[in-house]
Amino acid sequence: MTLIEVLVALAIVATALATGIKAAAALASNAERLGDTLAAQWCAENELGALRLAQQFPAVGDSDFSCEQLGHSYAGQLIVRTTPNPNFRRVDAQIVDERGYPLLRLSTVVSRF
Q1: How many Cβ atoms sit within 10 Å of the Cβ of residue 50?
Q2: Coil, helix or strand for 83?
Q3: Which of 15, 65, 78, 88 is the most exposed place for a label (fewest CB within 10 A)?
């Protein structure tokens, strides 16, 4: 083999390795995002479940809450709005990460008991 052939082969291997490392980093980032989203969904479902178990018609307005899941702390907000039918209220649970970026928004309708 000549020196040029060896250099071309090294360039091809280096390009393939760089692409592989970039793909592995993307997979790791996606796995972390999926874990955060799943934990945020647990937080939102817990808050909405607690609201249903309280058996009280929620007042219109916004309220903040925090949740601890999988060793991470998540901030959330319950947003209660009226609906055209006065016997129902729309409740949104929005979860953000430590940097304030939205992770999840879960909505439900709560009826008057």
Answers
A1: 11
A2: coil
A3: 15
Bridge partners, 66 (sequence order): 75
> How many CB atoms lie under 10 A from the CB of residue 81?
13
Q: Which two tokens mark 28?
A: 């790791």
pTM of the predicted model, to two decimals? 0.73
Please list the pLDDT of the chain residue by residue as tens digits (113 residues): 688 888 999 999 999 999 999 998 888 888 888 988 999 999 999 999 999 898 889 999 999 999 998 888 899 999 999 999 999 999 999 999 888 889 999 999 998 86
- H helices present in 56-105, as ranges: none
CB 60 within 8 A of CB 81: yes
78's CB contacts (< 8 A; 6+ apart) are 47, 51, 58, 62, 63, 64, 65, 91, 92, 93
Contacts of 87 (CB under 8 A, 6+ apart): 111, 112
